[in-house]
Amino acid sequence: GIQVEQSPPDLILQEGANSTLRCNFSDSVNNLQWFHQNPWGQLINLFYIPSGTKQNGRLSATTVATERYSLLYISSSQTTDSGVYFCAPDSGNTGKLIFGQGTTLQVKP
Amino acid sequence: NAGVTQTPKFQVLKTGQSMTLQCAQDMNHEYMSWYRQDPGMGLRLIHYSVGAGITDQGEVPNGYNVSRSTTEDFPLRLLSAAPSQTSVYFCASRLFSTGGEQYFGPGTRLTVT
Description:
The structure holds two protein chains of two kinds. Helix content of chain A is 0%, strand content 55%. Chain A is mainly beta. Chain B is 0% helix and 51% strand. In chain B, strands 2, 4, 5, 6, 9, 10 and 11 form a seven-stranded mixed β-sheet that branches. Chain B has a four-stranded antiparallel β-sheet with strand order 1-3-8-7, with no helix packed on it. In chain B, a hairpin with a 2-residue loop joins strand 5 (42-51) and strand 6 (54-57). At the A-B interface, strand 4 and strand 5 of A face strand 4, strand 5, strand 9 and strand 10 of B.
């Protein structure tokens, strides 16, 4: 099955800094989603982005499906951005999302 | 819309007991799935369903059963609980198997002693 690798595994930022999280996947995909798991464990969908670039406030994401990677940009980070960021591509018609191990982000005030 | 709801939020079981984790969604989504999350393991797919009456296995199906008698409900049954099933369980739904954003429930924290 598809393999998903996220980097970096851990990231510590000072409030106001920018960051880029990367997701590599081993096979062609139909769709890819980014999720944020907050410190209380809730999983929130950030982007549904099979290809191209999308922006939502301080966050944006780019997926280059032909090169099998996706990037999540966080600008002017805030303490509320802390948590774990997962990318999850799917492949085939089953719709199964395969999750990476995540990037754990800590934003310090 | 309540979105995806799960009950209970917390549960403690003894080894060998059985129980059902409930999941419901009110968004008329065709696709529903169950994941477990363990420290350092990310989220792993247990079972999924592409519509009422259709279910299939994910990455880690052993020890779990599912059924999908209605579009709204997708319960997960633990047949004979084992300590290895101690985990946080998330139910999720999306519009179709081939597309749509996936939404997660709040999770059930299960401890098996």
